[in-house]
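User: Sequence recovery, please. Input:
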């Protein structure tokens, strides 16, 4: 009887342990894909608690895609656009621009929607260097300044022999500036725009977009 009593106790304990419900692992992040032109893209994770997350990739974004149901995300662009993606969806960004921050919430959550934050730093501007100025056909290069939104900019030198030079900075460009006379430059955008700058001139790029290459010649 004593042996049967111990067996009964052990059986009862084992039954109670295995009958206990298993903890369910909850998903607390969502993967968002940011799509640019010419198949350029990147993916970033966002928590679903509504917290705002900075986006450091400066690629000019045309579409934002989510493959997760039950989540709503809002993203802020460098030109202060606001793009909301709900559930499984791909949403256009208009006009295309760098995204600076975003936040996501599970449907029914209490997260807050991000608003453009003036304190959020834009990509650090690069001071233009002193351009090489052709004089009577002399000089071998010219420095061109590419300007984006929120004072973001960078400068790059181009040879004056007409050679096409790749532009690797993906910043979305609104204006192209030359401070050198007697030169003529042509730049190609990622969305197939063509922008020509002649002499001392600032030319608008429309619509704003990443520049992929350029060539300059002495006028």
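Assistant: Recovered sequence (219 residues):
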């Amino acid at each position: 009887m004593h042996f049967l009593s111990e067996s009964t106790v052990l059986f009862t304990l084992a039954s109670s342990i295995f009958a206990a419900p298993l903890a369910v692992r909850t998903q607390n992040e969502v993967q968002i894909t940011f799509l640019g032109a010419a198949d350029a893209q990147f993916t970033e994770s966002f928590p679903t608690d509504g917290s705002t997350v900075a986006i450091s990739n400066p690629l000019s974004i045309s579409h934002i895609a989510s493959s997760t149901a039950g989540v709503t995300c809002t993203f802020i662009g460098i030109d202060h656009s606001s793009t909301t993606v709900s559930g499984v969806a791909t949403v256009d960004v208009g006009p295309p621009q760098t995204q600076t921050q975003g936040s996501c919430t599970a449907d029914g959550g209490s997260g807050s929607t991000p608003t453009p934050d003036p304190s959020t730093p834009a990509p650090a501007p690069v001071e233009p260097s002193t351009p090489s100025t052709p004089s009577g056909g002399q000089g071998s290069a010219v420095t061109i300044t590419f300007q984006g939104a929120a004072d973001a900019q960078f400068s790059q030198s181009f040879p004056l022999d007409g050679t096409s030079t790749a532009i690797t900075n993906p910043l979305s460009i609104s204006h192209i500036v030359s401070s050198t006379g007697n030169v003529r430059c042509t730049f190609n955008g990622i969305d197939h725009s063509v922008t020509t700058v002649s002499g001392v001139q600032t030319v608008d790029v429309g619509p704003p977009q990443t520049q992929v290459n350029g060539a300059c010649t002495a006028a």
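The chain has two domains: 27-106, 141-218.
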